[in-house]
Amino acid sequence: MSYNITYKKFSKMTLTEKWKMEGIIGAKKEDILKLINLKFERVPEGLEKLISGINDLEELDKLFTKVFLANSLEELLRDGGINGL
């Protein structure tokens, strides 16, 4: 099931569907932060703020993959990494 939706579609969702979507997005953010912490033993404050501000599931999926593939925190933060979402 794809959760890539536009604001227009989101605004037409039922309250239950919106809560479900918000839960999925929140869980993805937590997964990304946990993966960064497990791989690199820390999550820079600025990076945590950046991730908490992303509310597009497609962007979060791309970010999860970038974190998974990164060999170092520095690599992740370089252009083409986090900045290249």
From TrEMBL:
> What protein name is recorded for this chain?
Uncharacterized protein
